[in-house]
Amino acid sequence: WANEGNEAGEESVNLFLKSIGLREYSRYISFNHPYSHERPLLGHLKFFPWAVDENYFKAWRQGRTGYPLVDAGMRELWATGWLHDRIRVVVSSFFVKVLQLPWRWGMKYFWDTLLDADLESDALGWQYITGTLPDSREFDRIDNPQFEGYKFDPNGEYVRR
After folding, report:
1. Residue 73 located in a structural domain
2. Residue 27 counted as domain residue
3. pLDDT by residue (tens digit) across 129-160?
4. Total tally of structural domains belonging to the chain
5. DSSP string, 63-120
6. Is 153 a known ligand-binding residue?
7. Is 135 annotated as contributing to ligand binding?
8. What is the mean pLDDT of the chain?
9. 103 CB contacts (<8 Å, ≥6 apart)?
10. Distance between CA atoms of residues 68 and 104, nearest Å
11. Quick one: 91 exposed, middle or buried, by C-beta within 10 A (0-12, 13-18, 19+)?
12. What are the Cα distances from residue 146, in Å, to 69, 85, 121, 142?
């Protein structure tokens, strides 16, 4: 495809290979750290004062947070059992960094609702967002749901649907 100048095909293949690589990396982490779906790999947030608030959790699950992109994503998850990767990042980042709820709650909810739930990949994703993997984001890096909405849904089509 690269020789033919098919950039869309080349991009598609690269995204597919990246996804396979991430899946295999999550398997590697899980095999070598079998507790990774229960506790963080890095202990620097071990004593973080998570907000153990059932009302926040319920509002997030039901898509009633007041943030249109987050709410649309959570309603889509409940209705279809599926979320686009970018929306997964937005709703999980909001869950952990804005609501400051324990990441294991969100991971468990994804496990219960996603049709393509995968324990190793989901644990890796939630730990990546939380900042408890050796190569993850910093905890204070927040995916602003309003900015993400302007960037990826500028006309509000996703939110309306």
Report:
1. yes
2. yes
3. 888 877 666 666 677 788 888 888 889 999 99
4. 1
5. T-SS-HHHHHHHHHHHHHS---HHHHHHHHHIIIIIS---HHHHHHHHHHH-TT--HH
6. no
7. no
8. 87
9. 40, 92, 95, 96, 126, 127, 129, 130, 132
10. 24
11. buried
12. 7, 17, 26, 11
Predicted confidence (pLDDT) per residue in 37-56, tens digit: 888 877 777 788 899 999 99
| Residue 117 among known ligand-binding residues | yes
**Residue 101: phi, psi to the nearest 5?**
-90, 155
* AA identity, residue 128: Y
Longest dimension (CA), the chain: 55
C-alpha–C-alpha distance, residues 89 and 144, integer Å = 11
What's the predicted TM-score (pTM) here? 0.84
What is the rounded CA–CA span in Å between residue 76 and residue 8?
27
Highest mean pLDDT among 74-78, 84-88, 157-161: 74-78
pLDDT of residue 159: 92
**71 belongs to an annotated ligand binding site:** no
In sequence order, what are the residues at sequence separation of 6 or more whose Cβ sits closer than 8 angstroms to the Cβ of residue 73? 63, 83, 87, 88, 90, 91
Which domain range does residue 122 map to? 7-160
- Structural domain contains residue 1: no
